[in-house]
Design goal:
This protein has twelve helices and ten strands. By secondary structure, it is of the alpha/beta class. The protein folds into two domains: about 5-100 and about 120-140, Four Helix Bundle (Hemerythrin (Met), subunit A) (Up-down Bundle), CATH 1.20.120; about 145-345, 3-Layer(aba) Sandwich (Rossmann fold). The radius of gyration is 23 Å and the shape is globular. The two termini are about 15 Å apart.
């Protein structure tokens, strides 16, 4: 079905996949924005008459992209969100049309017509325009998500507190900077070795006149008893409320649980995934980078051992106290409800039509 894609869009798709694989867009926010732009162009380019045709083509297209980028959960999240947007616009348009046709319809007809709404075979005029308007709203939501999360900072950070964070997260950085305008507090940043992303965050916070201390990962447990709360960013929130996040966060969450320190996770809604962690399938969950930061290539031991350097850690939901999204605060058990609100159950598996 994807042979209908025109040549300019095929080049756009190749560039999109290439930019992600070569890590030109390392920020999840950028990937989310570019994914929405790509699908908007696709919807505008392909030929379709009914919503069912559009949904099927989008599912095939989404399956093609997610197969090429299996570790980019953000891409699958955006695909499913767009599919749900189309379903919502179709149902709203059908209901509006039926009301305009006959406002005097009996209750029986209105109730019985609900069963026909989900076939998606009715041609709805101006549906493309409605979809594009909703996509514009979704784009604005992505753009403002970090700011919306940061606005809640003063509700969670109080004066003279000690905050611990891991690695570098744009959400955490903006959150702490927002709180620092009205609160005085101290931040400990674990360096997140061997990638050492935490160094950049500590530097950025110190430039903003926030008292920050960079600490080795090994000292995290010893300092946890002094910490008031742990605030971390995340790559993806799994369907059970668990996290795919920076390497080292699992150890931090265990230390926090030992000392009964709350763990707050900052996660925009577009990072909420419908996927689960399969313990036997780490290749579909984790990404392994060069082990040079763990063991130098010049070391004679290298030829005798296998060295793995995973990018991500899994943090189970029982180690998370609170999620803060652009829509407010949620407990890990509420993730199931959020999933049902932003994704349609039929879109969890893109290979099924």
């Amino acid at each position: 079905m994807l042979d209908i894609i025109d040549e300019p869009h095929e080049m756009l798709l190749d560039n999109y996949i290439s930019n992600i694989k070569r890590k030109k867009w390392e920020n999840n926010y950028t990937i989310a924005e570019e994914t929405v732009k790509l699908f908007r162009h696709f919807i505008d380019t392909i030929k379709w008459s009914t919503t069912k045709e559009l949904l099927n083509q989008l599912r095939d297209y989404g399956m093609k992209i997610t197969s090429a980028l299996p570790l980019q959960f953000i891409v699958g999240n955006i695909v499913r969100r767009i599919l749900n947007i189309i379903r919502e616009e179709y149902i709203d348009a059908r209901k509006n049309t039926e009301e305009e046709i006959d406002l005097q319809d009996s209750l029986h007809k209105i109730v019985s017509s609900e069963d026909d709404i989900d076939d998606y075979n009715t041609i709805v005029p101006e549906l493309k325009l409605s979809i594009f308007e909703h996509l514009d709203e979704f784009q604005v939501e992505i753009e403002s998500s970090n700011e919306d999360i940061a606005k809640q900072a003063l509700e969670h950070i109080h004066s003279n507190e000690i905050i611990l964070t891991v690695g570098k997260s744009s959400e955490v950085e903006m959150f702490l900077k927002k709180a620092a305008k009205d609160r005085t507090f101290e931040v400990f940043v674990t360096e997140c070795a061997p990638l050492n992303h935490g160094r950049q965050l500590a530097l950025n916070l110190s430039k903003h006149k926030i008292q920050s201390t960079l600490i080795p990962d090994s000292t995290m447990f010893g300092i946890m008893s002094r910490v008031n709360k742990v605030i971390i960013g995340v790559d993806s929130v799994m369907a059970n409320g668990g996290l795919r996040t920076f390497n080292g966060c699992h150890a931090v969450s265990l230390a926090a649980a030992h000392y009964s320190v709350p763990v707050i996770v900052l996660a925009p809604m577009y990072k909420l995934s419908s996927r689960y962690l399969c313990s036997y399938n780490q290749d579909a969950f984790n990404e392994f980078v060069s082990p040079d930061g763990v063991l130098n290539y010049s070391d004679s031991v290298v030829s005798k051992v296998d060295v793995y350097n995973p990018t991500y850690d899994y943090v189970p939901p029982e180690n998370v106290t609170l999620f803060i999204s652009n829509n407010g605060g949620h407990s890990p058990s509420y993730v199931y409800r959020l999933l049902s609100e932003i994704y349609h159950p039929l879109d969890y598996d893109l290979s099924i039509h």
